């Protein structure tokens, strides 16, 4: 069909000048239609209905469509062949989006799904007036918004004579009202005697555009005078008629003549029969039957669950014109909304009114006083408005989207089990967009990428590393313990995974600066004057777009994939044999893996002892949840126990990160309140409640009690998010392992002694409790310049020797993440004009000047480390801006942490486990002997109580 695909372009004009520009318009209009559905629900009662044609007096599955034997040769295309006959589903409806009595003035509609084969069907949609009231999708949605929720004559008049002219202008509103009056003044006595026009055109193969219509076949009985006081009279009349005879329509087509008489883009122009006569080409027969039988009622209920869309067809019959192109997006969104697969959160009126003036006031205030220097409540409100700005301007969808729309088969139904359990690969979290956030989905962006190959090696990343990152002496983060460092790596392994080529297949070469000595890229390999870094595997993009789109080979969701794996094969392999719900453990530890000694778990790259402790702890936690579920619900299957336990453990991990780890590393009162509000709602004071009601009513409850909301882009993690989580300075180079009872030193080890396969030998030797204690009393490194672990600047990973500090710089540059000054400006911070504005440390400023030619050249990671953070913060305010956007987004987008975070899915025990649980409870469940050592008034990520050894074997301690 390449030829006809080219042919139809002459009939169409894309709004905005391109298919992609038009797609963005249609996405916005689709969201507006979902708001119309909410208004109609409020007016009509009940649940969300179809945006239009909410009430169907007639719905049958056993109709037949047969093409005439003398079908003209020019119209013999695809399934349209002489004598061909197919089963069809028919839904006849009232056009309003509010269910109302059949006597109300209204248009009527017909939706027909012709089933050709298992993989092919064709949806035909038509309405009982030959033209649309709207020329295009913008007008169509403007009319829908004006009439949304208008049930009474007064509300309808207000919509038609006030809201509509304000939206489209007086002249357009007059034309639209005239069309609507003409269409609805006609009294309908029977749906069987109405004619239904397609309004918009479709392609009919090489025959070009056509409009189609369904008109009553000659010879049918006329409609009897109905009782118009009966709100169901159309359904009753059709049922009486069908009880005695077939109902038959002729399918007719009108062929395109020219743009003046038969325009494709303008749906408000009638294709007159005098210009292009309607030719009957097939007959649709609804056979005689009892519509009141149990079988017919059951069929009608099934049809109400269907989503009709004119794009459910084949390329030969693809819809044409602006309104039809908008229908694919709009119908898909509104049907998903109706079926509980997509959601809309309407902003309350008071929030909309106050948003701009208060947001502007805070933007002015922030020029002089940063948010973190304001009083606590004012700083929290400031952050609310900053997050609104970031949601509006800093969510960039990078996936290649369909533009223009394409024909497709009817989508497969959602697998029933995936309504109540996480998939293995992240699919079907968003039921309306199964691939969103799944394994392989592209990383999004918070900032427009800057692809600068000319600056890939400027300045030399090895020089940057040696001069600015190399750990000259260990700088501790004294408010944290090493468990905080292990935790964030544990989390990042769940969130992000860029796939790499093998070093020998494709690599980046970084030249060594003069005088730096040779580098060995592989163990036992030759000395070289370049560092070789395995290249990331990029995703292909259309056109001449730069190669900076990458797939995430972990799922983007907070689903515990580092514990469970990212595919079904791995997940099942990690479980007990014979389908048991528990994860495999050997003597309480992860089972050994391959020859490298790294154990079996969901994700085990960059393995070390701290990471092993986290994986072991949460594998045990999974098994504990399984035991509890089995005891509480004896009839629950092992498969259900496994998936419920995964839901519980994943949600518990998300809660720990939200209300414990993050407030520990961003140790300020405002952040502690803000993050706890994200999970459990705000503190219960009238001032907090009033403030949020006025400015951000959706925050009056914790995110788990809200609906999913992706805001301005489909959900994904971002390359910028990956960049700000480069927190390798947290890792010390040396560790002291101690036993927890008497505080005796067991061993002093370097990071490489507990890295890779050596980690498992060491943790089994030391024991989980002693390992946790050893990490709990030790400080991680501060996230700052000159503090990158020496161990990570020269270590072996998968057959290559790498300097991770250089890798971080190279990856960030090549992925198009803007340099630091552009990065902070893109996050609405003032640009820097001099090196002195980067840091208050004179030595840091001097080194920056030595390495970089200008402040605009500073690497993102370097700038983030150099920046002076707010008091109490473990990382920079610039990095924090990505965090406040993405931290709530990871919760807000995930249906298992919002609308499906409920006892029916998790079980009452599961919800209770998450709500009462935390890092302390996890540690104490599996190492109860550590109870006296955990911090009393802080999270498990704060320094623990240290047991000091004494000469007589007794105990003394300090806090």
TrEMBL record:
Question: A GO term (biological process) for this protein?
Answer: fatty acid biosynthetic process
Cofactor needs: Ca(2+)
Q: Which residues cross the membrane?
A: none
Q: Name one GO molecular function term.
A: heme binding
Q: Which InterPro entries match?
A: A_dioxygenase, Catalase_sf, Haem_peroxidase_animal, Haem_peroxidase_sf, Haem_peroxidase_sf_animal, Oxylipin_biosynth_metab
Recorded superkingdom: Bacteria
What's in the keyword line of the UniProt record?
Dioxygenase, Fatty acid biosynthesis, Fatty acid metabolism, Heme, Iron, Lipid biosynthesis, Lipid metabolism, Metal-binding, Oxidoreductase, Oxylipin biosynthesis, Peroxidase, Plant defense
PANTHER family to which the protein is assigned, alphabetical: ALPHA-DIOXYGENASE 1, PROSTAGLANDIN G/H SYNTHASE
Descriptive protein name: Peroxidase
Biological classification of the source: Bacteria, Bacillati, Actinomycetota, Actinomycetes, Kitasatosporales
């Amino acid at each position: 069909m390449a030829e006809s695909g080219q042919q139809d372009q002459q009939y169409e004009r894309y709004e905005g000048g391109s298919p992609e520009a038009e797609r963005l318009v249609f996405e916005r209009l689709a969201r507006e239609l979902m708001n119309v559905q909410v208004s109609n629900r409020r007016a009509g009662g009940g649940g969300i209905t179809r945006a239009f044609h909410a009430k169907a007096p007639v719905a049958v599955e056993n109709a037949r469509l047969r093409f005439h034997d003398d079908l003209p040769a020019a119209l013999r295309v695809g399934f349209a062949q002489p004598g061909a006959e197919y089963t069809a589903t028919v839904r006849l409806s009232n056009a309003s989006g509010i269910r109302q009595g059949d006597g109300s003035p209204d248009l009527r509609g017909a939706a027909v799904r012709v089933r050709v084969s298992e993989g092919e069907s064709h949806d035909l949609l038509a309405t009982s007036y030959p033209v649309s009231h709207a020329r295009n999708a913008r007008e169509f949605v403007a009319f829908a918004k004006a009439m949304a929720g208008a049930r009474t004559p007064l509300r309808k008049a207000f919509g038609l004579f006030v809201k509509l002219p304000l939206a489209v202008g007086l002249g357009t509103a007059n034309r639209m009202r005239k069309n609507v009056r003409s269409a609805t003044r006609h009294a309908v006595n029977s749906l069987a005697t109405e004619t239904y026009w397609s309004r918009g055109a479709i392609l009919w193969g090489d025959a070009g555009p056509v409009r189609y219509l369904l008109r009553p076949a000659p010879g049918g009985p006329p409609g009897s005078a109905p009782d118009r006081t009966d709100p169901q009279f159309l359904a009753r009349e059709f049922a009486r008629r069908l009880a005695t005879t077939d109902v038959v329509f002729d399918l007719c087509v009108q062929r395109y003549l020219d743009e003046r008489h038969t325009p494709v883009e303008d749906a408000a122009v009638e294709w007159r029969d005098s210009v292009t006569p309607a030719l009957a080409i097939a007959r649709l027969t609804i056979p005689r039957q009892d519509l009141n039988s149990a079988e017919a009622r059951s069929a009608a209920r099934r049809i109400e669950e269907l989503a009709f869309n004119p794009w459910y067809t084949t390329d030969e019959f693809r819809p044409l014109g602006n309104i039809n192109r908008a229908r694919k997006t709009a119908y898909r969104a509104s049907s998903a909304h109706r079926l509980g697969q997509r959601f809309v959160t309407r902003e309350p009126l008071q929030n909309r009114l106050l948003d701009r003036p208060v947001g502007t006031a805070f933007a002015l205030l922030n020029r002089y006083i940063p948010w973190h220097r304001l009083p606590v409540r004012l700083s929290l409100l400031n952050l609310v408005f900053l997050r609104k700005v970031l949601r509006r301007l800093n969510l960039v969808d990078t996936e290649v989207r369909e533009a223009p729309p394409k024909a497709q088969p009817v989508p497969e139904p959602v697998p029933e089990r995936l309504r109540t359990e996480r998939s293995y690969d992240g699919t079907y979290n968003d039921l309306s967009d199964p691939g969103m956030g799944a394994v392989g989905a592209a990383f999004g962006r918070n900032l427009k990428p800057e692809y600068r190959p000319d600056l890939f090696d400027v300045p030399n990343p090895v020089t940057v590393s040696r001069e600015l990152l190399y750990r000259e002496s260990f700088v501790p983060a004294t408010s944290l313990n090493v468990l905080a460092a292990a935790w964030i790596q544990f989390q990042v392994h769940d969130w992000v995974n860029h796939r790499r080529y093998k070093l020998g297949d494709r690599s980046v070469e970084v030249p060594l600066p003069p005088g730096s000595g040779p580098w060995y890229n592989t163990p036992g390999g030759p000395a070289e004057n370049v560092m070789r870094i395995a290249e990331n595997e990029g995703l292909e993009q259309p056109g001449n777009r730069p190669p900076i789109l990458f797939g995430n080979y972990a799922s983007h969701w907070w689903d515990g994939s580092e514990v469970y794996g990212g595919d079904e094969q791995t997940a099942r392999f990690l479980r007990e044999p014979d389908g048991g719900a528990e994860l495999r453990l050997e003597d309480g530890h992860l089972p050994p893996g391959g020859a490298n000694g790294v154990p079996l778990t969901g994700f085990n790259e960059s393995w070390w002892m701290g990471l092993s402790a986290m994986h072991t702890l949460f594998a045990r936690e999974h098994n504990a949840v399984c035991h509890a579920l089995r005891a509480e619900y004896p009839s629950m299957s092992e498969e259900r126990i496994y998936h419920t336990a995964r839901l519980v453990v994943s949600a518990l991990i998300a809660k720990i990160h939200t209300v414990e780890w993050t407030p520990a590393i961003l140790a300020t009162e405002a952040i502690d309140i803000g993050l706890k509000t994200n999970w459990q709602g705000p503190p219960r004071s009238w001032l907090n409640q009033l403030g949020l009601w006025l400015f951000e009513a959706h925050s009056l409850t914790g995110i788990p009690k809200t609906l999913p909301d992706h805001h301005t882009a489909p959900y994904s993690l971002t390359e910028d998010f990956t960049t700000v989580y480069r927190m390798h300075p947290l890792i010390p180079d040396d560790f002291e392992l101690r036993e927890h009872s008497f505080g005796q030193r067991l061993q002093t080890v370097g990071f490489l002694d507990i890295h890779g396969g050596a980690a498992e030998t060491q943790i089994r030797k030391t024991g989980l409790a002693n390992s946790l204690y050893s990490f709990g009393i030790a400080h991680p490194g501060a996230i700052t310049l000159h503090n990158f672990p020496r161990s990570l600047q020269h270590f072996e990973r998968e057959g290559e020797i790498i300097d991770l500090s250089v890798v971080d710089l190279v990856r960030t540059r090549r992925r198009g993440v803007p340099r630091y000054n552009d990065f902070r400006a893109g996050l609405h911070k003032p640009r820097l004009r001099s090196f002195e504005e980067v840091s208050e440390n004179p030595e840091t400023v001097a080194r920056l000047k030595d390495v970089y030619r200008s402040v605009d050249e500073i690497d993102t990671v370097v700038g983030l480390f150099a920046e002076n953070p707010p008091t109490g913060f473990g990382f920079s305010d610039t990095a924090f801006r990505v965090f406040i956007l993405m931290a709530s987004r990871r919760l807000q987008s995930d249906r298992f942490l919002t609308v499906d975070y409920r006892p029916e899915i998790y079980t009452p025990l599961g919800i209770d486990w998450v709500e009462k649980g935390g890092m302390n409870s996890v540690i104490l469940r599996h190492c109860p002997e550590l109870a006296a050592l955990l911090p009393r008034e802080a999270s498990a990520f704060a320094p623990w109580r240290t047991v000091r050894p004494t000469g007589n074997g007794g105990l003394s301690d300090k806090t």
